[in-house]
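Lay summary. Proteins are chains of building blocks that fold into shapes, and those shapes determine what they do. In this project we predict the shape from the chain. Here is one chain we studied, written as its sequence of building blocks.
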Amino acid sequence: MTEAPEFVRKCVIATNIAETSITIDGVPFIIYSEEVKEMSYDGKCKMQRLQEFEIRCTNAEQLKGRARRTGPDICYCLYSEHDYLSFQEYSTPEIRRVSFDSSILKMISMVLNDSRKFPFVEPPDMAAIDSALFRLQEQVVLSTIDCLLTSIGSILARLPGDVSIGKTFIYRVLKNNYDPLYNLKYQ
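And here is the predicted shape, written in a compact code that computers can read:
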């Protein structure tokens, strides 16, 4: 970004992704609200989606440091000290709040079949692994007897993203009903 003219201030509007992703010279002020959006699994819709949460103490501290990297900083927080003291210290690890279907599918495709015994840094709940295996079997991505990849499962394991959207995409291509804008419509 170019340097701001005299008597002009830069204003950057960003999501909580900016906590770790960007540093912009000449931004001495940070204005921070008390909400963030994080990818989470919505059990009602049976899909992942961005959901709003209160920030965590670590979010606030990380963002304050964004301006400090290039000079003195001032952080205006749109919440009270009382609110800050009520925030959770850390975010829930992503492995505990998103659908585990794609991860389990990738693990099985890499012949790491017994995901219950995998040495995760932050282990997920066993119920989440069992639910993911059940959903993958229900969608005929894994065989019901030995949890091996089906033919569609081996294709899906190579695709990024949500399993159900990938499966829909594959079936649309197979039926010659492919729309190049499909990816844009459903993201």
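What the prediction tells us: The first strand starts at residue 29 and ends at 32.
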